[in-house]
Amino acid sequence: MKAELTPPVIDHKTYLLNGKLIPWSGDVAEVRSPILPSDASKEDELRGVLLGSAPDMDEPSAIAALESAKSAYDFGRGAWPTADASVRISAMEKFIERMVPKREEVVNLLVWEICKKRTDAEKEFDRTVIYLKETVAEYKNLHREGSHITSVDGTLAQIRRGPIGVVLCLGPFNYPLNETFCVLLPALLMGNTCVFKPAKYGVLLITPLLEAFAESFPPGVVNIIFGRGRTLASPIMKTGKIDVLALIGNSKSSNALISQHPKPNRVRQVLGLEAKNPAIIFEDANIELAVKECVKGAWSFNGQRCTALKVIYVHKGIREEFLKAFAAETDKLSVGSPFENADITPLPEQGKVQYMQSYVDEAIAKGAEVVNGRGGLVQGNAFFPAILFPTSRDTAIFREEQFGPVCPVLEFEDFEEVLTDVAESNYGQQVSVFTQNAEAAGRCIDHLVNQVCRVNINASCQRGPDALPFTGRKDSAVSTLSVKAALRSFSIRTLVACTEDQKELMEDVISGGHSSFSSMNYLL
Ligand code: G3H
Asked: Is 514 exposed, middle or buried (0-12, 13-18, 19+ CB in 10 A)?
């Protein structure tokens, strides 16, 4: 697929440090789209359209960003962590107000940089704005809950959730706006200060929002740097000055970063990691519905979602019928431009097409076939979804999270075989169960709820609605995210306590307005 439209060329040259956009004059990294230039020749076939460049910052700049966040936090005594809740809410509302007019610019870059189809890119932006607004409402609730005093066995106590400290926030390329902002902004609202580094792909789309951050939050509260994780994140962790690691990505990266912290036990981890969500299709399933949900679940955004269906188990009795229909529906997907809302679009990660091919090659060598006619067809950086059957358990595609358009299918006769795989899997995010039988559904629920964190009945896996808890077991997550849960994940309970004989003093603290923590100002 080649570019018909003219790309926006942005040579971005600033970063956000201590409340100011600082010009960067050091090394830069090229940013390319996975879409090929219209005049692409055979030699540079997979080199996408040049979109511009972003700073490729160095270790001293990373440490400067950390120091800025650290000094704004000032051991919890800084103006931001001690600010009245209404001050933090105003900053957040100002940010949302400044973010909204940037919609078109951000969405356009989202499409160019990671080839998310236009309608989904718009959804990502809008969903994020709604999430942030709901976060403010939930924060007010939390604050109201903390504005009363309880009496327990003669002890008076006021309990609130307080910030944890300095957060290092690293986002993923597949939801570079939504998944990053849904951790970064709740972390800020709770009074933490942050260093944020955008993902490897999906970098330029953050740049139209730098001013909004600078204008909305006090100096040092949020610092945004650009470059490679190894150069920037590792030295930051080694200082031991990070209190929270917020990372949406892979457990290899999070484990490596945590192990670099001199006191890993001190680091709160808020992690959304890899998954291998299975679909389990029973003999009595509504095949049409199962096919529709598997097409959506396995192939939306080319399978590049942590919640994607990444392995399918189908009962022997309906395997043939299901596979035929699944292959036929998959082959109807369109390949092409994300601007025209094609279903299958170019893959942003370098070498990803070859990586997908290697999964297919190994599975074929171990007895599988690609069951859909268009499976594995390559067009530029796009790879047409390939359905593999029968898939050996001794393959990488069975064991690993593929995060792309290849899906292994296995046949089962006894549900116990599937349960053994689920139990032995390194992942534990969600599962989709397809059956029309209440007894079978009930049995699945009871066997699976303690293996994963969401059992979807006759539906594909997904994160939303965003008010629901989103988490996982084993290598799939640490901490829970949702509008409400994110605020809890980025805070810790802290309280003021005294005996009844100190009542008068505490009354004076409160009525005199001497403390923003011990206040009874109800935020409406
Ligand atoms: O990549 C993981 C995302 O959180 C998935 O969210 O299910 O809304 O696509 P989604």
From this structure: exposed
Answer whether 464 contacts ligand 1 (Cβ < 6 A): yes
For the CA of 300, the nearest atom of ligand 1: 9
Cα 462 to Cα 375: distance, rounded to the nearest angstrom = 24
Residue 498 Cα to ligand 1 midpoint, Å, equals: 45
What is the enclosing helix (H) or strand (E) of 235? Answer: helix 229-238
- Quick check: CB of 306 below 6 Å from ligand 1? yes
Half-sphere exposure of 324 toward its Cβ, with a 13 Å CA cutoff?
4
Q: Which domains does the chain show, CATH number per domain? A: 10-273+479-488 (3.40.605.10), 277-464 (3.40.309.10)
Give the span between the Cα atoms of 487 and 128, in whole angstroms. 15
Residue 305 alpha carbon, nearest atom of ligand 1: 1
Do 397 and 362 meet the contact criterion of CB atoms below 8 Å apart? yes
272, 269, 307: which is closest to 179 by C-alpha? 272
Tell me, in angstroms, the distance from the centre of ligand 1 to residue 95's CA.
24
Mean pLDDT, the chain cut into blocks of 10 residues (524 residues total): 81 98 98 89 76 98 98 98 96 98 98 98 98 98 93 96 98 97 98 97 97 98 97 98 98 98 98 98 98 99 98 98 99 97 97 97 98 97 98 98 98 98 98 98 97 98 98 98 98 97 96 92 83
